[in-house]
Fold Glutamine--fructose-6-phosphate aminotransferase [isomerizing].
Amino acid sequence: DKGEYRHFMLKEINEQPRVIKATMEGRVTESRVLEQALGTEAGDLLKDVRHVQIIACGTSYHAGMVARYWIEDLAGVPCSVEVASEFRYRKHVIQKDTLFLCISQSGETADTLAALRQAKKAGFRAALAICNVPGSSLVRESDLVIMTQAGPEIGVASTKAFTTQLTALLIFTLALARKNGLSEEREADIVKALHLVPGQVSDVLALDGEIAEISKRFMDKNHALFLGRGSQFPVALEGALKLKEISYIHAEAYPAGELKHGPLALVDSEMPVVTVAPNNSMAEKLKSNLEEVRARGGELFVFADRAADVKPEENTHVVLLPEVHEITAPIVYTVPLQLLSYHVAVLKGTDVDQPRNLAKSVTVE
Ligand code: F6R
């Protein structure tokens, strides 16, 4: 039931404050991740993990890419991320004491399951699943499970599944990091920041009107570029994927530093450039990338933290977001990009909940 909403996608975008909170429930206190957050056997299984291999497809893969930044930053454990359809068809080296982590909303994605089964034969320390569907094949075949509490996701374009995956992945990272020397202070700082996320997402949802207004600038465009740095690069990838899926506008995402290594050649007044630029350590660097785009007549759409001090100028639309912790920023910054693609699709009159050629669950290769 869509309730008051015109589409399931919009309903699901708006459910995010609640489902992110639900995914934290029973897993964190005010300032700590609970030992039992990942189940009773987790303590032993995580103790000697020396490497994390993440496998997923599509949006879930983007969640894995964000997690890599967290795992290496907070836990200091090397982490590799690969799309399942690539992993399963190449020869790979599974290092000793690797935790194999599959991320899947449905838990039935054929490539992800095949990668897991293959890796089991090759031998790894344990399999952890982050999944939204209890009783799915992925859940049944894994040693440890963190269920996201997104509830059923009907819109084919994944929204609330992604932000709850990120929430679960951050909780997992903290549990792993604690075994690898993360200080109590840093853990408390991040857990407190995580508690602020549902409220910050609500604040972003309140910008719906403003985002609907700028979405008009995309209606007659054929291409768009998304830029982000660090853990915001996967957020840019996810923003581009959403725009492609539901509005059929060709969109590509780049790490902002790659702009001058090629894609800058594409930038002109017909190429809108969307940037996610929270006030993290990268904000200053990103500003020079923005200058490069502006100098070529490109129209810029910047989603930035109030404190990032990005000013609206000619051809530059700035949407100010709440101040967020650098670690939790990818969760919050995903939401305005969901809204942007939603509104572009509505304006273009596409079938938002059932985009052409796509299926909700990809159970065949
Ligand atoms: C994009 C989308 C897909 C899925 C992908 C993996 O909006 O929904 O890219 O993320 O098919 O699906 P799951 O997570 O069910 O394995």
User: Anything to note?
Assistant: Residues 134 and 147 are 7 Å apart (CA to CA). The pocket of fructose -6-phosphate is lined by residues 57-60, 104-106, 109, 112, 157-158, 241, 245, 361-362 (CB under 6 Å). The beta strands are 51-56, 79-83, 98-104, 126-131, 144-147, 223-228, 250-255, 273-277, 300-305, 316-321. The mean pLDDT is 93.
